[in-house]
Specification:
Layout lengths: L3 H24 L1 H8 E2 L13 E2 L3 H17 L3 H30 L4 H19 L11 H7 L1 H22 L5 H19 L3 H21 L8 H22 L5 H7 L1 H17 L12 H13 L9 H24 L3 H24 L6 H5 L1 H4 L8
Antiparallel strand pairs: 1-2
Helix pairs in contact: 1-3, 1-9, 3-4, 3-9, 3-10, 4-5, 4-10, 5-7, 6-7, 7-10, 7-12, 8-9, 8-10, 8-14, 9-10, 11-14, 11-15, 12-15, 13-14, 13-15, 14-15
């Protein structure tokens, strides 16, 4: 295991590289803005008022790459395996990053194409790193995964693509996705530390440092967006951290890892249900009914005073709500989710909390009526004309 000083140094290098690259992107936007600016400020899911570069994924990639190179400078023979593994993980992330990055620049890559690219990244990671889920701690399913490597790869690819997409979905306000990634990686990194898994600690620390560097520019003023390239890249990094943590450490149950990542996963599952089952729409159809959007329109606009001198302050306030929620659930999962039953309870509890808050924000009452909660969009197909 690397010393705390070495981990801090590696994280700091990744953060610095990410920050400097983010700053350069912002300072040079007059040169590349024709291609990089998010000019569609009237889009259904847009809450910013001025065009902003949405190619922050480049800074995130540079941050991870720089951290890997720095780690390799003084790597001992014993650390070479760790370095090679992280480098291969970075290589596997490229299809997801490239597909998202092309969308950021051209606005012409479909959701399906981006998802397929993320599937490709997951399959590539399975091939390069043997990063396939050996178990889900579900009776019967674990036997199936162990008997059929192809099924294990398919299930892993589906899970990785789902998590990567979930980070893209919650990336709607300044600092929300970045802070969520930091918290989730910190939770999984702590589990890896307790399991004495140096590789996974390093992977988590690199992701944390890179995200922090990006947030220094992104939050709170929103001068740079991570875009689809950054969201899919970080989402892939989080998902593969979860997969490898489970695969490498039998003492860590899959439900505990899911509990740490449960907020964005619940968001994407409920969004698919809400659009496909209730509203009979394509799951890829954008709308303004994600929970973070409701928090912005129903809570932030009431609780945070308008400030014309700092128009971004309400946008940035959403991350305070979401990050607090994810941090609380991560702490509970880390310290109370060591057994499958307790970890399952955390996941179910988080799902119930999500439904309760969603129901309250859309329908205006606190009691949980399962039928009303699951048919919530039939009751109110849209939030009343909120700002």
């Amino acid at each position: 295991m690397m010393s705390a000083t070495d981990l801090i140094e590696t994280s700091s290098v990744a953060a610095t590289a990410s920050f400097v690259t983010s700053l350069l992107i912002v300072l040079t936007q007059d040169w590349h803005g024709k291609h990089s600016l998010d000019k569609d400020i009237d889009g259904v899911q847009k809450f910013h008022t001025t065009p902003v570069p949405r190619v922050g994924g480049i800074a995130l990639l540079v941050g991870i790459l720089t951290g890997v190179l720095y780690y390799g400078i003084d790597a001992s023979i014993a650390e070479t395996q760790t370095l090679n593994t992280i480098a291969m993980l970075l290589l596997a992330a490229l299809p997801a990053f490239i597909a998202g990055g092309i969308e950021d620049v051209t606005k012409k890559v479909s959701v399906r194409a981006r998802l397929f690219a993320t599937f490709g990244s997951a399959i590539l990671a399975s091939w390069l790193l043997n990063a396939s889920l050996p178990r889900l701690d579900v009776w019967g399913v674990d036997t199936l995964l162990q008997l059929s490597p192809l099924i294990a790869v398919a299930v892993t690819a589906f899970a990785v693509a789902g998590v990567a997409n979930s980070i893209n979905i919650i990336d709607g306000f300044h600092g929300v996705a970045g802070s969520a990634v930091i918290i989730m990686l910190a939770g999984m990194g702590f589990l890896a530390y307790r399991a004495d898994d140096a590789l996974m600690v390093n992977i988590a620390v690199l992701g944390i440092g890179t995200s922090i560097g990006f947030l220094f520019v992104n939050y709170p003023t929103g001068r740079l967006f991570m875009g689809d390239g950054g969201a899919y890249f970080l989402g892939f990094w989080v998902a593969e951290t979860a997969v490898l943590l489970i695969a490498r450490n039998p003492s860590i149950n899959a439900w505990q890892v899911l509990a740490i990542c449960s907020y964005p996963v619940i968001e994407v599952i409920y969004s698919i249900y809400r659009k496909k089952v209730i509203r009979k729409l394509s799951p890829g159809m954008p709308d303004r009914l994600h929970l973070h959007m409701l928090i912005y329109r129903r809570l932030v606009w009431k609780l945070v005073p308008r400030n014309d001198a700092q128009p971004w302050i309400r946008n940035a306030a959403v991350a305070c709500f979401i990050a607090t929620w994810i941090a609380a659930m991560t702490l509970i999962a880390v310290f109370a989710g060591d057994t499958v039953p307790t970890a399952v309870a955390v996941v179910i509890g988080n799902a119930m909390l999500y439904i309760a808050i969603y129901t309250r924000l859309v329908c205006g009452y606190w009691r949980i009526n399962p039928v009303a909660a699951l048919g919530i969009v039939r009751l109110r197909t849209h939030v009343r004309n909120a700002p």
